[in-house]
Each structure stands twice: as C-alpha cells, then as structure tokens.
Amino acid sequence: MTYAMEIERHRREAKNIGIAIGREEGLRQGQAAGSQLRAQKIALSMLQEQIPLNVIVKCTSLSEQEIHDLAKEHNLL
Prior knowledge:
Blueprint: H1 3-48, H2 53-60, H3 64-73
Helix pairs in contact: 1-2
C-alpha cells in the first residue's frame, strides 16, 4: 500500500468516525428536545385542569418559572 493510499484510508476512517459521533450527538439532542416538549404538553394539560403548581413541578420536572412562562404563553394566567 502506498503512502497516499494509507493517508486516504485514514481520512475515510476519520470521516466515518466523525459522522458516527455527529449522529449520536444529534440523537441525544433530539431525545432531550422531545422530552422537554412532552413535559411542556403535560404541564399545559395540568394547567388547564387547574392542578396546583407544586404538583405540576413534581410530575413534569419543569421549574416553576418554566411552567409560569408556559402558562403566560398560552394565556392560562
């Protein structure tokens, strides 16, 4: 194998590793965003049912401020 071929093989391997790392990071970010969206939807439903704020915080793991902002955004205050 020539030096140029060896360099090209390493370049391809590095590129494939970079792609795999990027996919993993994208998947983690997508899962986190999906979890946050789900928590927000649950919190909205609970706000509409007039469930106390402390219960919503406990059930969704959202902060009081996040729930307050969500309520304002959806005219539930």
